[in-house]
Design a protein that fits this description.
Layout lengths: L1 H7 L3 E11 H4 L1 E9 L5 E7 L4 E7 L2 E2 L1 E5 L10 E5 L15 H4 L6 H7 L1 H4 L5 E10 L17 E3 L19 E3 L9 H5 L9 E7 L2 E6 L1 H9 L4 E8 L2 E3 L10 E4 L2 E4 L7 H9 L5 H9 L13 H4 L1 H4 L3 H9 L5 H8 L7 H13 L5 H10 L7 H8 L5 H13 L5 H12 L1
Parallel strand pairs: 10-12, 11-13
Antiparallel strand pairs: 1-2, 2-8, 3-4, 4-5, 4-6, 6-7, 7-9, 8-13, 11-12, 14-15, 15-16
Helix pairs in contact: 12-14, 14-15, 14-16, 15-16, 16-18
Organism: Lacrimispora celerecrescens
Protein name: Cytoplasmic protein
Length: 426
Amino acid sequence: MFRNFLKKSDTEIITIKPPETHQTEWGGDGIVFYVKNGKGLLSSKYGYLEDAALATLVYGDTPLIKFQGDGPYFCPTCEKLVAAGYGLNMSNNKIISELRDVLNRQFVSLEESLENLKLLLGLLSTGYYALVDTELCPTNGNGEFFWKLNNTLTYNKASCPIYGGDGLWSKEIPYFVLPSQPPSLYNPQQAELYRNKDEYRAITYHMDGYLCTLIDGHHKVVAAALDKKKVKSLVIIPASFVSMPYDKQNYNSGISINGVFLNENEMINPVKEVSKLMELNQLKRDVTERYLALRNEDFDKNYEWPKEILDAEKIFPDAVTVARQQWAGDISDGRLSCILMNQEVISDQDALNISVALYYSKNPRFKEMAFYFCKNYFYVSVWYKIYELLAEIKDEEVENFFVDYLIENDKEHPEIKKIIDKHFLA
């Protein structure tokens, strides 16, 4: 019925740019597309009160997630308070639930996915988006399993770029997921169906920072957690910034889709028209108050997740760790060898960033570089953090390194001895 409805409407999904690789901005390959005469049933909305600011993904008239500013405005570089929305299952509009067969088709290519998902993408508001094929952690950016989200507003460090000092900011890319449905809907048998299968994709919507909200695929994400790997996902990224023409400053007019700029001459309609369309995303005061007050108590029930699922919390990085991987820069063998031969002098923070990047990328030179940094007093301020990474590895080489440290009886760093003791007791 919905397919016939869409055919009769004037909604169109128009490809603007074919698949391109934007690893640093999007975290994967993506297609830029335009939704013409979108239904606006699935859209990001913003509301402002004297003491609160709200950003939410709305389906119909149901908020699926809540991002709340610490005050009456959104600071783009500040952590947001994040809480569960009312729940996709609470919406009166059942179109998405009727698209299960479409959403569960096996992935072939981005072009085919764009075609298959036209029914879903037509629910978006009129505007420009990217559809990106990437991988997301089954965690929330604060080091917790993604489906632990509840009605309690909690600061989430993944809700904004991370500041690294000296004017250094991390790049915001889709990396973590948040649920749009309560855990009471979890079915262990359904999650098992997606174990060790890479041909399926979750569907998510990029909100802010590193965070994406699930539209479909909660059980796919649980399966990924069980398999101790990231979940493959198609991420919808909306246009986030409009650059208006200003001849005196020679500004280029266009829009930004999470850092990827689309010039006005690449667009279907004038940038001023796009700006006006984005203004429609603002909520009225009474709606903002109602959305903030909505609570689905199912999110607050004490659901006991199995240990094998919660083990994912130990495997995947938090937002700060992701930022450190970005700041590490080049971790090629050539650069690492230059550091070992003192041909390149790096700071203690650089040493930590490189160690983190090597560890999480499972680079075989991690131990070599970690041992080097932990033997050099120039990097003593970050020793304990590198020791924490080493302590996650169970092998003879690491144990011998720890034993040598204990033999030296370094009493100046009791926190390192605690890390080593815990390692041997585990």
